[in-house]
Write a structure and sequence with these properties.
Largest sheet: none
Radius of gyration: 19 Å
Distance between the termini: 71 Å
Number of helices: 5
Mean pLDDT: 87
Number of strands: 0
Shape: elongated
Strand content: under 5%
Low-confidence stretches: 8-19
Length: 101
């Protein structure tokens, strides 16, 4: 009985430490995203898998990166990025604009 209790406590503490780790990584990725460091943020969000809304944030990072390329006048680079997320937000509109440019 005592071994089971110790084993249960160890499992619970491991689960909590992993969750805390995910939480700090999520926070770091969010800060990177807010600072326009989309590729770095997307890498962390991808590693977080299904933690919180990480999967949605990967798409938001890809969109942010594509939009930044478009606004910088790199229409070819933007077009390539937007093509990968055609259904996200107004990406289709940006694809049409980039193709026109």
């Amino acid at each position: 009985m005592r071994k089971q209790l110790v084993y249960g406590i160890l499992l619970a503490s491991m689960a909590l430490s992993l969750t805390a780790c995910d939480g700090s990584n999520y926070k770091k990725a969010t800060e990177l995203y807010n600072n326009g460091q989309y590729a770095e943020a997307a890498e962390i969000f991808t590693k977080l898998g299904d933690y919180e809304d990480s999967a949605d944030m990967v798409l938001a990072c890809q969109y942010g990166e594509a939009k930044a390329l478009y606004e910088a006048g790199d229409y070819e680079g933007a077009l390539e990025k937007f093509e990968g997320i055609r259904e996200y937000e107004d990406s289709a509109e940006y694809i049409a604009k980039a193709e026109h440019e």
